[in-house]
C-alpha cells in the first residue's frame, strides 16, 4: 500500500475566504487600514495504490481556469496563478508513470471548481467516478450554469457512482461523510501499515487554523451547523486513530509533507 500526495500548485485569494478568525482576518478598528492578506491557497490530489485497486482523490484546477470560470466570476477572486507546468494534475500523474487508464476509482471530495476541475480527463477510461449522493443531488439539481463554486461545465454529463454515509471503498481506505462546506463534502481516511492513519479533510477543514480547537469557520460554508459537526466528527476519528490530519488548503502543511514524485507514505 502506497500513498502519494500530489502538489498541484496554488490559487491566490484573500485569506478571509478561508478563515473568519478574530485577530487574523477579522480586525479591530485599530487595524482598519491594514492591507488585505492574500494567501497561497494550495491545491492537492492524492493517489492511493492498494493490492485491490488504485484510487485518485480529487482532481484540482484545470489549465483553462481563466476562461472556464468566467460565468462564476471566481477567476478574479481565486486566480490559479501559482502553478508550474509540472504541477498540473496530468503531469503530476505522468511523473509517477500513471495514466488515467491505470486508475480504478476517481473520488471527488465534492464538486467545487478547484476539486473537480480535471475530472473529465478520466471519463471513458474505465475509472469509476465517485462522489457523495447528497453532493450529486445538489450539484446536478440547481438551475443555471453555476451555484457558488459548483460549475456544471466541470462535471455535467459524466456518470458518477455515489456513496452515502461513511464507506470503505478499498481495504484501508474509508470515505467519511462530512457535510457543511457543501451538502455532500467528504473526507478520506487511509490506514497505512507503516505511516499509520492519515485523514485528508478536503474543504471540511481548510487550514490548521480552521481546525482549532475551537473550530473557526470560513466564508464559503453551505451549512454552518453541519460544518461544526463535521469538524468534530473528524477530530474524534483522528483522536481515536492517532491520525495525521491533512487539511484542504494549508500551504505551510503541504510544503512540510513528502510530495510526489520524490516522496510517499506507506
Average pLDDT, rounded to a whole number, is 97
Major sheet summary line: 6 strands, mixed
> Radius of gyration, Cα only, in angstroms?
17 Å
Low-confidence stretches: none
Strand content: 25-35%
- The ordered H/E elements are EEEHHEEHEEHEEEEEHHEH
The total strand number stands at 13
What does this protein structure show overall?
By secondary structure, this protein is of the alpha/beta class. Helix content is 20%, strand content 27%. The protein has seven helices and 13 strands. The strands form three sheets. The chain has a six-stranded mixed beta sheet. It has a five-stranded mixed beta sheet with strand order 9-10-11-12-13, covered by helices on one side. The protein is globular. The termini are close together. Its cofactor is Zn(2+). Residues 42-249 form the Metallo-beta-lactamase domain. Belongs to the metallo-beta-lactamase superfamily. This is N-acyl homoserine lactonase family protein.
Amino acid at each position: 500500500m502506497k500513498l502519494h500526495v500530489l502538489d498541484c500548485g496554488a490559487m491566490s485569494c484573500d485569506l478571509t475566504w478561508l478563515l473568519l478568525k478574530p485577530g487574523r482576518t477579522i480586525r479591530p478598528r485599530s487595524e482598519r487600514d491594514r492591507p488585505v492578506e492574500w494567501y497561497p491557497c494550495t491545491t492537492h490530489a492524492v493517489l492511493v495504490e492498494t493490492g485491490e485497486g488504485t484510487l485518485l482523490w480529487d482532481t484540482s484546477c484545470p489549465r483553462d481556469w481563466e476562461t472556464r470560470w468566467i460565468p462564476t466570476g471566481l477567476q478574479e477572486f481565486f486566480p490559479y496563478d501559482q502553478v508550474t507546468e509540472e504541477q498540473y494534475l496530468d503531469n503530476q500523474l505522468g511523473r509517477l508513470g500513471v495514466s488515467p487508464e491505470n486508475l480504478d476509482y476517481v473520488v471527488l471530495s465534492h464538486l467545487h471548481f478547484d476539486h473537480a476541475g480535471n475530472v473529465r480527463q478520466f471519463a471513458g477510461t474505465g475509472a469509476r467516478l465517485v462522489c457523495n449522493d447528497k453532493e450529486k443531488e445538489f450539484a446536478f439539481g440547481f438551475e443555471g450554469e453555476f451555484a457558488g463554486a459548483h460549475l456544471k461545465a466541470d462535471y455535467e454529463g459524466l456518470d458518477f457512482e455515489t456513496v452515502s454515509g461513511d464507506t470503505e471503498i478499498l481495504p484501508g481506505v474509508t470515505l467519511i461523510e462530512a457535510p457543511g462546506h457543501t451538502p455532500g463534502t467528504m473526507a478520506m481516511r487511509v490506514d497505512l501499515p507503516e505511516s499509520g492513519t492519515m485523514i485528508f479533510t478536503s474543504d471540511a477543514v481548510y487550514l490548521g487554523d480552521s481546525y482549532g480547537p475551537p473550530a473557526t469557520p470560513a466564508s464559503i460554508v453551505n451549512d454552518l451547523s453541519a460544518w461544526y459537526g463535521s469538524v468534530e466528527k473528524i477530530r474524534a476519528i483522528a483522536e481515536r486513530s492517532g491520525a495525521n490530519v491533512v487539511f484542504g488548503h494549508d500551504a505551510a502543511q503541504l510544503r512540510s509533507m513528502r510530495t510526489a514524485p520524490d516522496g510517499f507514505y506507506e
